[in-house]
Amino acid sequence: MADLEWTGEVVEWRGPAPFHFLVAPPEEAGWLRDIMRDVTYGWGMIPVTGRVGDTEFTTSLWPRQGSFWVPLKDAVRAAEDIALGDVVTVRLDIRVG
After folding, report:
1. Domains of the chain with bracketed CATH
2. Strand arrangement, sheet containing 18-23
C-alpha cells in the first residue's frame, strides 16, 4: 500500500521550462506538511517513489502555492500516454534516508 494516492488533473507550470505536475489535494497536502520536517532534504522538497499506471519513477514533491506538486517526467508521460489536462492516479511512497 502506498503512503499517498490520489487522482487529479495534469497541470502545467511554466517556470524556466514548462513542467507537468499533479497537485496534492488539501487533505494530502496537510499530511505532507505534518511530516515534512522529518522527510525533507531541504527547501521543503520531499523525495518519493511514484507510480502512474505501470510506470514507476523517483522524484521529489515540490512545495508550491500551499500544496505539494508531483513532477511528471517526460518518460513517465510518454510511457503512460499522458497529456496536459488528463486525469490520472498517482501512488507515492516517501523515501526516507
Report:
1. 23-94 (2.40.30)
2. 4-9, 87-94, 46-52, 55-64, 67-71, 18-23, 11-14
Q: Is the pLDDT of residue 16 over 70?
A: no
C-alpha distances out from residue 13 to 46, 69, 73, 76, 93, Å: 19, 10, 13, 17, 23
Range of weakest confidence among 43-47, 67-71, 82-86: 43-47
Lookup: cell for 85: 489536462
Interatomic CA distance for residues 44 and 57, integer angstroms: 20
The DSSP annotation for 40-97 comes to: -SSTT-EEEEEEETTEEEEEEEEEETTEEEEE--HHHHHHHT--TT-EEEEEEEE---
Residue 87 CA to residue 31 CA, distance in Å, equals 22
